[in-house]
Automatic annotation (TrEMBL):
Main enzyme class: transferase
Membrane-spanning segments: 21-41
Domain of life assignment: Bacteria
UniProt-recorded name of the protein: Peptidoglycan synthase FtsI
A GO molecular-function annotation: serine-type D-Ala-D-Ala carboxypeptidase activity
NCBIfam families reported for this sequence: pbp2_mrdA (TIGR03423)
Residues covered by region (Disordered): 630-682
Domain Penicillin-binding protein dimerisation residue range list: 64-235
Ranges of Low complexity composition bias in the record: 648-671
Length: 682
């Protein structure tokens, strides 16, 4: 059956249209509601965000690095200051048309081609946020030439800022450290935008690093209105930076420089302590690096030269150099003997050697000292006396006294690190080597050899505590509270006796008679020390020859040490001098201590003596370092090939081979921080 045609009425059409209109209208209303809600969200909830974004498009905010706080000495003399400079950097993220910009900068700043190549390489390796240095310390004319064209050079950031400057140069290198640009690792720690501001530098070593929160200051900012293309319209306002705080040290800058110069061509350290307060007046460590070179960006050649130097100029010997203290510990051993009840007049006969079982321990005087009591044992530095009597009280009593005087102690100072050496005793050896203490270990430790290790600061504090009779603690920041200072748990009469015996070392018949102070009515007391750096076997001793003095390689020579204080009657200053491989404490270390003490009482006389010495050394520190750098640069240049030798008649086609280049390898570093086995022979 055929189905009939459907008839659509007007009512049905109206109903369909109404339904469709309602659906379409609902959709429109929904979309409108969504759009209205979104617009409301953007205009109300997100108002602040987009307002700031719009402001950022219109206004450019440039951080102004803060001026770093000065470092000054106890008298206000500058040690680290700031100098105004002009610089130009490139921000990689903002750089466009690199080749055009570099070509224009090369023209404006008269950059050599190798410097342009260096900038290209730095741009390849740089993170986008970190500025790349184009030039620094430029004159104002060049700075202005770049500044007026800044809108044409996107990514280029000329700036007027400050560079760190150290007037004393290498003399304060290890004391204050240096500054440098923040690394990507530094930036990742807290994403501080100041760290990537062109020209901003942070402390990298020494006090500059440890005291960064005090020295940094707060940045300023400059707001400028710019067009969409980044062209400057006008400066809106500027907020000045807040300079970092001034750091006042206990150091005497003049003394610090003098001591560094007086070390001369040697490698070592000089420390001077105020016996009244514990203030550190001098912490010289030489050779050193010039912190100005590091702050300005040290060259690969100069760093390689420092790293290859066997005198280790990158090591702070005052805090991180460890040395056998040698005979400088004998006053401490004598105090331990007195505490144990030994009388000063008790004596022993020194024949030049001491037998313990099947081992023979030598005195430094091969012919012996004869009858030796405690006073003579100190001022003549007789080893046999201490070999003999140290066994009566044992190492634990000796170690207790040494620690009380500051050996083996880590001091609360604002320094990145310090090594505190070893004061061995029975428990230490059992813990370290899982074996018991032997009598020969005591014999060795009693003359500052064997396992004994200390740094120059500890030796200076030992001297200051003996001189003052108080448990002084070293202080480096002038305004920090004094610590320690209470009386030592040592009989004052014992201390008076030791001070008198140490006076005889310099002012009597002792080992440092040539080092008396050339100052009227002022005497210095002290104790010399000579420490071996390697074990001398019985076979070597039997063969004879030289073991730690002239005629052997520098790194095998004995260390030279001296501790002292002045004046003897009412000690005000204490000092320690350690000269690596200096051979003799009385010949090398004690004269340096004499001149440093002389400077404290008569600077003009001390400087006159030093200037004559420097003439023989080839000039002052800066002159010698400049010459070494020039010699190193010449060594790095490839040697020219030798011209061909005349060909023999029978072999005219054979040319001579080029001459071999000179061997520029550096000497191996000295083994200064290792324990020495007992020095003995059978």
């Amino acid at each position: 059956m055929k189905r009939g045609r459907r008839i659509v009425t007007e009512q049905q059409q109206l109903l369909t249209f109404t339904r469709r209109a309602m659906v379409l209208g609902g959709a429109q209303i929904g979309i409108g509601a969504i759009l209205a809600a979104r617009m409301g969200w953007l205009s109300i909830a997100e108002n602040e965000r987009y307002r700031l974004m719009a402001e950022d498009n219109r206004v450019q905010l440039i951080l102004i690095p803060p001026r770093r706080g000065w470092i000054i000495d106890r008298n206000g003399q500058p040690i680290a200051i700031n100098r105004t400079d002009f610089r130009v950097d490139i921000i990689p993220d903002q750089l466009k048309d690199e080749e055009r910009v570099l070509a224009e900068l090369a023209r404006l700043l008269a950059l050599p081609e190798e410097e342009v190549d260096r900038i290209r390489e730095d741009l390849k390796d740089a993170a986008g946020f970190r500025p790349v240095q184009v030039a620094e310390k430029i004159d104002y004319e060049h700075f202005a030439a770049v500044s007026v064209r800044q809108s044409e050079l996107p990514g280029v950031a000329p700036a007027r800022g400050y560079t760190r400057y150290y007037p004393a140069g290498a003399a304060v290198g290890h004391l204050v450290g240096y500054v440098g640009a923040a690394s990507a690792k530094d930036y990742e720690k807290n994403r501080d935008p100041l760290l990537i501001a062109p020209g901003f530098k942070i402390g990298k070593e020494g006090l500059e690093k440890v005291m960064e929160p005090v020295l940094r200051g707060k940045p300023g900012a400059r707001r400028s209105e710019v067009t969409a293309r980044g062209k400057l319209v006008r400066d809106l306002d500027t907020r000045s930076d807040v300079a970092g705080g001034t750091l006042r040290l206990s150091i005497d800058a003049g003394l610090q420089t003098y001591a560094s110069r007086r070390i001369g061509t040697n490698s070592g350290s000089v420390v001077v302590v105020d016996c009244h307060t514990g203030d550190l007046l001098c912490m010289a460590s030489m050779p050193s690096y010039d912190p100005n070179s590091f702050s300005d960006g040290i060259s690969h050649s100069e760093y390689a030269m420092l790293n290859a130097n066997d005198h280790l100029p990158l090591l702070n010997k005052t805090l991180q150099g460890l040395y056998p203290p040698g005979s400088t510990v004998k006053p401490a051993v004598a105090l331990a003997l007195l505490r144990a009840g030994q009388r000063p007049e008790e004596s022993v006969v020194c024949t030049g050697a001491y037998r313990l079982g099947n081992r023979l321990f030598h005195c430094h005087k091969r012919g012996g000292h004869g009858h030796v009591d405690m006073r003579r044992a100190i001022h003549q530095s007789c080893d046999v006396f201490f070999y003999h009597y140290s066994q009566t009280i044992g190492i634990d009593a000796i170690a207790t006294m040494m620690r009380q005087l500051g050996l083996g102690e880590e001091f609360p100072l604002p320094v990145a690190s310090q090594r505190y050496g070893t004061v061995p005793d029975t428990a230490w050896k059992q813990r370290r080597y899982k074996t018991g203490w032997n009598t020969y270990d005591t014999v060795n430790a009693t003359i500052g050899q064997g396992y004994m290790l200390s740094n120059p600061l500890q030796l200076a504090i030992m001297s200051a505590r003996i001189a003052s009779g108080r448990a002084l603690m070293p202080r480096l920041l002038a305004r920090s509270p004094l610590k320690g200072g209470e009386a030592l748990d040592v009989d004052p009469e014992h201390l008076a006796f030791i001070r008198s015996a140490m006076s005889d070392v310099v002012n009597g018949p002792g080992t440092a008679g040539r080092s008396r102070l050339p100052i009227a009515n002022v005497q210095m007391a002290g104790k010399t020390g000579t420490a071996q750096v390697r074990n001398i076997t019985a076979a070597e001793r039997a063969r004879g020859g030289k073991f730690g003095g002239e005629g052997v390689p520098w790194k095998y020579r004995d260390h030279a040490l001296f501790i002292g204080f002045a004046p003897v009657e009412n000690p005000r200053y204490a000092a320690a001098v350690v000269i690596e491989h200096g051979i003799g404490g009385s010949a090398v270390a004690a004269p340096i201590a004499r001149d440093v003490m002389t400077y404290l009482y008569d600077p003009a006389k001390a400087l006159a003596t030093l200037e004559k010495m420097e003439e023989g050394w080839g000039g002052d520190i800066e002159t010698r370092m400049a010459r070494e750098a020039a010699e190193w640069a010449n060594r790095e240049k490839p040697a020219p090939a030798a011209p061909p030798a005349p060909a023999p008649a029978s072999a005219a086609s054979n040319a001579a081979a080029p001459a071999p280049a000179a061997n520029n390898g550096a000497a191996a570093p000295a083994a200064d921080a290792v324990g020495n086995e007992p020095v003995e022979t059978d």
